[in-house]
Amino acid sequence: MLAFSTHIVFDLDDFEHAVSDIHDSDLWSSRAVVIKVDWGLWRSLGHTAFFDDEERLRLIKRVRARVRSMEVIVMPDPGSIILHGSGGDASDLGPRILFSEGAESPCFAPISQEKLSAIRKEMIRVLLFRNIDRCVFPASERHHFSLPSGAHVNMIVRVQDALVDMESVDLIAYWCAIEVRKFHGRLSFSGIDALIMVDNPGLLLLAARLSAFLNLSAQYHSFLQYGDVISRRGNELSAGLSLSKSHTVCVFICGLSLTGSMSFRVKEMISARRNKAGCVINVLSLSDSVEAFSNIRIYGYHSSGPGQVCGMCEEGSHPIPVDQSTYAVRLLQPLEVSLPPSKFSQQKEFIASYGGVPGVLRVHYDDPNEYSPRHHAFYIDVGSLIESSDFRSELLSKLSALVEGRDAILVPDHGVGRKIASILSTVFLGQIVMIPSDVSLTPAASLAIIRKSLNLLVVDDKFITGSRFDGINRYIRESEVDLSVLDFFAIVATPPSQARYDQRLSGLTTNHPWDSSLSFKHFIMLPNWENHEDCPWCNERDYLTDFASEGDALDSIAADRIGVLSRTRIGLSADCFFAPAAQDFPSLGNGSVAGPEGLSPLQVLFAFVSAVQQKRQCPTDRLDVSSFPQPSCLAKKVFSDHYTERLIWLALLRCLKEYELAGDLKAFLREEMTKTIEHNRDSFARFELFIASALHGIDMGSAALDSLKGELLSDP
Asked: Which of 53-57, 165-169, 492-496 has the lowest mean pLDDT?
């Protein structure tokens, strides 16, 4: 085992600090430490009489006291070699032993090839795994990749994406330089022309740094396609290898070799053209059968070679082609999906019946009834809902059936929870226990009621993620209770997906010693956009703030709208859309799939945001821009043919992400927005279309924009 210091030693005083930089656990589990030193100090260490000086000897022996009897290996810092421009004059760049195992006196002795390989392998492995999220791309479920070579793998590995800084590039170039020196013996590279070829353009910088290490005057050549189909690369090889006839040094670097066939073929062709072999380097391989600087294992990696039977294919996984030129997934053209009427049935009754109750539907809202109040782009406020006499009657009927036979009912201790407890007290004469956000802080008397109960009901206002129910369920499981029944009831459930709801249903109601259920009064799927980056109104506020500050318009229509958007503690309702006046918006027309004629803009917005969210969660034909291998987006016909009312357009634009609009749909909207604003300045939609164009990246034309900007910066 090896331990590496990240500190670069510039003088002898730094050696002790370099060792102390290594974590104790790494030192305890290692037999040798590796320390990088600046090129100037490296050259000094190589002088025969360097250790004869007593003060130098005293300083350097302090390292031995830190690492006991371990072996201490030093190597030149790759970056400093190039900085000093001395790599080409050095007779040996390889690591050296400073203290051999158990020795008290320093030396500067060469290391064995076995140790050199071990150091190189570990350093490159650490480099790759430090950046593994950038350079290893697993396939999604039920898919895998078909490489240009014909091999099938479940992960794409791109070595060049691990080279995120010059330190990383120089480290690989350093090991390549040592290999080139070993291959060409003691040949002096000064003044020699070289050809350095790489297997993809992403490694051309590595080729350039290698020539800087060796002070080589080099020409560089990159293959423009991947894979081992060398016959298809005849022109590329000819372009590179024809140059090799006039070069003394010829080097080929392959970032990742899966089978070794490409390197073998290149070596064979170089030898045939030059009558001697060139230096061929494989930086990384995932197979032990290929000679490489580092042969590593990536957890979960599976592959089958060209022509072999692919176990992943046999299991029903779909192979996705990898592009020969970019070594990236070949994305298919996005699939354009519609928004069918069936996606409106789930929410239609609730929105028509109660969406018009003041305060029930809110957007851009900070919910106060939470332990850590969260921001919600779309929210149904049960506190306002239960103020409706019609809904209260409906709720009482439901609760009357639920409370029968209960020993106690648990209700969260927040504003709406206390309203719910008051309603429950009219149909339940037993104990109603108020539960704080942190269940463990429940008063002792209340906990005693829970512990002696056999039949419990938990009632909450909302189910979004189920986190509050989870907390109560977890506490009861960890407590000494002897329950027979534990049921959960939410007045309104607004999960982001059916799968999320089913997951919590399983967690709350299965594998318990008691019987359990999860139910609700109304179920409406809504996007769980809690981050300000997801909220359309937060984005509108940020955009208008920047826009108004540039125009220095502190008293303007835009500034007034920014003030409206700051009311997150009450949210937006009538002013959910940006209009010259809220009453300018028409209500929904007759015969719409969203609901009956006369729905308010806010009701229309919620009808469509729920429909879109359901479309995002469909098992088939879903709206999913991240779908692999073929993304999907909303089709133009949804706007041009199916839902042509401007109010519906605005609702859809508020609940769609920019990348969820098909390209031809954006073009259609661009044309329509321009006509609306240029030829109908009094349109109710003009400000909202301006915001939509900004949030969805739609250029409506300079004339229309200038007209709107002037109006927005004018006095209200």
From this structure: 53-57
